[in-house]
Design a protein that fits this description.
By secondary structure, the chain is α+β, with helices and mostly antiparallel strands. The protein has a single domain, classed as 2,3-Dihydroxybiphenyl 1,2-Dioxygenase, domain 1, CATH 3.10.180. Helices cover 18% and strands 38% of the residues. Strands 5, 6, 7, 8 and 9 form a five-stranded mixed β-sheet that branches. It has a four-stranded mixed β-sheet with strand order 1-4-3-2, with helices on one face. A hairpin with a 2-residue loop joins β3 and β4. The protein is globular. InterPro entries: Anthracycline_SecMetBiosynth (IPR052164), Glyas_Bleomycin-R_OHBP_Dase (IPR029068), Glyas_Fos-R_dOase_dom (IPR004360), VOC_core (IPR037523).
Length: 118
């Protein structure tokens, strides 16, 4: 029935602020930008920023977007901190990999993920 993921939609309350975060902090390429809808390329997965009137900054729960770091999670943690990202805890170790949780400017849950070492 389903054939891949076309776009992940993320609700935002402030489009300019959200685009700046995904472009400048996460270094994603902006493909289109408008007041109600903007798209960014996350390595072949399109992230759509959906500027809805009833969107509110989230404080808990919901979907999580996991990003693959360019370098080690430790190096990327320092980069995220230097760019003002809202880090939500420590790097955690699991049998299935390592994660570092953080939030975008709109309160959406994001994380860096690296698979376990072979």
């Amino acid at each position: 029935m389903a054939h891949g993921v076309a776009t992940v939609w993320v609700p935002v309350t402030d489009m300019k602020r959200a685009v700046a975060f995904y472009r400048d902090t996460l270094q994603l390429e902006v493909k289109s930008e408008d007041t109600d809808w903007s798209e960014l390329d996350a390595g072949g997965l399109m992230i759509g920023l959906n500027g809805r009137e009833d969107a509110a900054v989230s404080s808990s729960g919901g979907a999580v977007i996991s990003f693959q770091p360019d370098g080690s999670i430790e190096d990327e943690l320092e980069t995220l901190k230097s760019r003002g990202a809202d880090i939500q805890g420590e790097i955690s170790e699991h049998p299935w990999g390592r994660i570092l949780p953080f939030k975008d400017t709109e309160g959406n849950d994001l994380q860096l993920y690296s698979p376990p070492k072979a």
